[in-house]
C-alpha cells in the first residue's frame, strides 16, 4: 500500500511542477506584451522625431532604430526591408491585440503625407500607445495574481482527485 502513496506523491509533485511552469510561462507572456508595447511606443516616437528632423525614408528610420527587446526587433528588421504593414501581417508578432491594432492603424497612414501631418500622426499614436501601456501596467499585477490563483486552483484540484 505504501508504493501507492509514493506514486501519488510523485504524481502530485509533477502536477505542482507543471502548474508552476504554466504560471511562469503566463507571467512571461504578460511581461512580454508590456515590453513589446513599450518598444512599439518608442519606435513610433522615434519615427516622429526622425521625420521632423531628418530626410530619411521610413525604412531607413526603422533600420536605424535600436531595440533591446528581441521579439519586436525581428519585426522592426522585417519592416525595414519591406514595410511596417507587411511585417505586422507576416511576422510572428509579440504584441497584444490592442498594440497590434494601433500599430496596424499607424502603419496604414504612415508615409502618406507631408512632414507636419506625419509628425502629428506619430504624436497621436505615441500618445495612444502610452495610454494603452498605462492600462497594461495597471492590470499587470491583477493579471499575474489571477493567473497564479488559477494555476494553484487547478493544481490543488488535480491533486485532490489524485489522492
3D structure, described in words:
The chain is 85% helix and 0% strand. The chain has one domain (2-162). By secondary structure, the protein is mostly helical.
| N→C terminal distance | 13 Å
Low-pLDDT regions: none
Report the β-strand fraction as a percent range.
under 5%
Average pLDDT score: 85
Structural class: mainly alpha
Tell the overall outline.
Answer: elongated
Please give the share of residues in helix.
over 70%
Number of separate structural domains: 1
Largest sheet: none
What Rg do the Cα atoms give? 22 Å
Number of helices: 6
What is the total tally of β strands? 0
Order of helices and strands: HHHHHH
For this entry, give a set of tags:
163 residues; 6 helices; elongated; single chain; mainly alpha
Outline the secondary-structure elements.
Elements: H1 2-53, H2 58-64, H3 70-81, H4 84-90, H5 97-109, H6 115-162
Helix pairs in contact: 1-6, 2-3, 3-4, 5-6
